[in-house]
Structures are given as structure tokens and as C-alpha cells.
Amino acid sequence: MQVYKVGGAVRDRLLGLPVTDVDRVVVGATTEEMLAQGFRPVGADFPVFLHPKTGEEYALARTERKSGRGYGGFTFYASPEVTLEEDLIRRDLTINAMAEDDQLNLTDPYHGQRDLEARILRHVSPAFAEDPLRVLRVARFAARYAGLGFTVADETMDLMRQLSESGELQALTAERSWKEISRALMEDHPQVFIQVLRDCGALKVLMPEVDALFGVPQPETHHPEIDTGLHTLSVLEQSALHKQPLTVRWACLLHDLGKGLTPEEEWPRHIAHEHTGLKLIKAVNERFKVPKDCQELALLVGQYHTHGHRALELKASTLLELLQSFDIYRRPQRFEEFIVACEMDARGRKGLEQRSYPQADYLRGAAQAARAVAVQPLLEQGFKGPELGEALKRERLKALKIYKDNA
Predict the structure, then answer these.
(1) Whole-number Å distance between alpha carbons of 251 and 60
(2) How far is CA 140 from CA 31, 187, 193, 195, 207, in A?
(3) What pLDDT score was predicted for residue 75?
(4) Domain for residue 395, yes or no?
(5) Low-confidence residues in the chain, pLDDT < 50
(6) Position 363 in a domain
(7) What pLDDT score does 183 carry?
């Protein structure tokens, strides 16, 4: 019975990066032997155990065979006869198919270390094409390691293209897809994730609404980069550079979907794209069963981001409607996330990345002015029910007019 660290722990140590998750493979052991040593079994699909003291995961070496569609369409075989090399060959990328023992002796049958040095993401074997989730995983690794100069090997990109065209991507569950998408969006270069998916044809299968933005022009005066798809990638890049949370990054990805519906004869203008895009944002949200906070912010940013850009010109009444739409009194954080999403949108334009965005502080001040209106004096004047709501609205409008005059 031999224990090896495998996968990400080995890869990141060799790259000189912090090791967070440690996976271990046990070669030459049976389930019974693991149980006899006090290991606790977890997972229904294949034999994984928790260490009796540390709680860390140990998996028996196993092989797998394609038996159905999608990520879950595999049967696993674990036995003491399965070798370390047989276990490693079923992994996705060569850089994830290395193992080391306690003395840091490296087992690298598929040249993962060579690919690490060459900064290449390369599949281990043709079995890569049996698991559609690997398309998303490779794109995510490309986003994670883009800053180190990693790119996807041409032959791996060919397999990803085949998978995208095969219809297998549709077999992925919403939950599995969202797990990969959300993790990828939180990497340092999330725009690379979207670009790689587009390059292999997966984006038009998974998110045709985003794919449709590429090649759609915008007015050059406002958007020197012109192409809406490239703008979306830049906005996503800015959201990562400014360390924004997932809610903001998701909203940044979807904010301009309506521009993909503009008839060509109306290009490069996109009148009312904020409203036409809402049904598309809703569709993408539902497709991946996106968490509620991400869903809500994406819809609000899609609908109101141009209000954000024109904040300084808005009438006090329009400003009040905007604040009410976000329920700034009970959910101040959501409005703050809207403001930064608008700022990322403004910065995601070629040559304008460093331009100041005074609208942000102006909107924060407006929210503060509206929230400062006290309810108690109105209650003391006898207002209640719907009348109280109207009186409160009038006072907030007054406060916003004063704020606007003094801004």
C-alpha cells in the first residue's frame, strides 16, 4: 500500500505557488484494508476515504470507462492491481497527471513537468474527449495560469472543438457547468476563459447570447474598441483587476447582451438594448441555475447601466426611481455593486481604462441623501399606510433636488 500526492498539489508546488488542496491516491489497497485502518468512506461513485485523524481525502487508484453521456457517464474500477500510471492516465491535463511520494520523488509518466516548463496545457490521452466538462476545466486553467504565460496546446484545442461540435456539452448539468463557470470567473484572467471557450466553439453552445456579441460594432466615439464582444472581455478583465466579487463579474459578462439582437441596419447604434437584453440575461440565468444574488444584479445592471453612465444628467425624479429599483434602504450593498459594475463597464474601453468615473461618487452621494430622510417626523405628522409612503417619496425627492443643486 503506497500513498501519493497527485494533481494540483504537485503542479502548484512545482510552479512555486501556494498549495491549497491536497489530493492523495492510494495504490495497492482494498476498501477493506482502508476501513480496517479507520478511514471513513465518502462518495457513492468511487472509493474515496477520509483520514481518521486529519479528515483529508484519500482515493483508491482507479480506472474509468465511458458508459453514457456527459460528466457522469462513467463506470469506475478500483482494485489493488490498478497502477499509479493507470490512475494518472485518466486525468485531464499532463500538468495534473503527476504524483509524488512523501520524499518528493516525482512520478511523471506523461511529461507534465516538461509541459509546465513550456507553459502548455495539454491533454493526457484521447480519453480526454470522453468528458465534456473538461472543455470548461481547460478554459478555467487557461484563465488561472494566463499570467504565467500558459496556452492551450493545438491538439488539445482540436479535441475541445470536437467535443463542442458533438452535442456532449448539452449533457452537462446546470450545477456542474455553473460550478466551473463561477470558479473561472473568479480567476485572475476570467476574460481568457471566455476567449478559450469561443476559440473552441463551446461558447456558442453554452452561452450563444455572449458569443453573438463578437463582430457587433458600437459607436467608435464611445467605444474605441468597436467590437461588443471585445468590449465585454475588457469589462470582465477590469472586474478582475479591481478584485470584484462574483456577482459583479457575472453582471459584467451579461450587461450588453441586448446588443446582440440589434438589426444590422441599425448598427453601430443600439437603441433600447438595455430592455431587449433582459430576456437574454434571464435565459442565461435560468440555463445555469445561477444563484439569486448573481441573477438579480445581472438583470439590474443590464437594465440600468446606461442610467449609471448618465447619472450626472438624470433628473431628481429619475434618480429617485433608480434608487427605489435597487431597494437601497434595505439592500445598500446591491446598489454599491451596481455602481462598480458601471465603473467596470466604463473602464472596459480601449484607451479609457484609467479615466476617472465621477458618476460613482455622485450615485453614492445620491443614495446617502435619500437614505438620510427620516421617517419619524412624518409619523409624528400623522402619516400612515400608503400616505406615509407617498410623503416619504416626496421628502426623498426634495432631498435629491437639493443634493443635485449642490453637487
Answers:
(1) 41
(2) 33, 8, 5, 11, 16
(3) 63
(4) no
(5) 67, 70-71, 73
(6) yes
(7) 98
pLDDT score, position 20: 86
In this predicted model, what pLDDT tens digit does every residue of 326-340 receive, in sequence order? 999 999 999 999 999
* Segment 78-123, tens digit of pLDDT: 788 899 999 999 999 999 999 999 999 999 999 999 999 999 999 9
Pair (152, 138) in one structural domain: yes
What DSSP string runs through 236-278? HHHHHHTT--HHHHHHHHHTTGGGGGS-GGGTT--TTHHHHTH
Could you tell me the CATH number of the domain that includes residue 15? 3.30.460.10
Whether 343 and 243 have beta carbons less than 8 Å apart is answered as no
- For 50-70, the pLDDT digits (tens) are 999 988 889 999 887 654 554
Q: What are residue 192's DSSP bridge partners? A: none
Which three cell numbers, joined as nine digits, stand for 321? 426611481
Q: Cell numbers at residue 375, please?
A: 421617517
39 close to 50: Cβ distance less than 8 angstroms: yes
C-alpha 304/C-alpha 300 separation (Å) is: 6
Pairing relationship of beta strands 40-42 and 23-27 according to DSSP bridges:
unpaired
Residue 66: its pLDDT value, please? 54
Same domain, 230 and 366: yes
- Rounded Cα–Cα distance for residues 177 and 174 (Å): 5
The per-residue pLDDT for 67 is: 47
- The answer for residues whose C-beta is within 8 angstroms of residue 288's C-beta and 6 or more apart is 174, 177, 178, 181
Determine the Cα–Cα distance for residues 172 and 92; give it in Å rounded to an integer.
17
Residues 6+ apart with CB under 8 A from 181: 136, 193, 288
- Residue 172: CATH number of its domain: 1.10.110.30
Q: Residue 238 sits in which domain range? A: 207-371
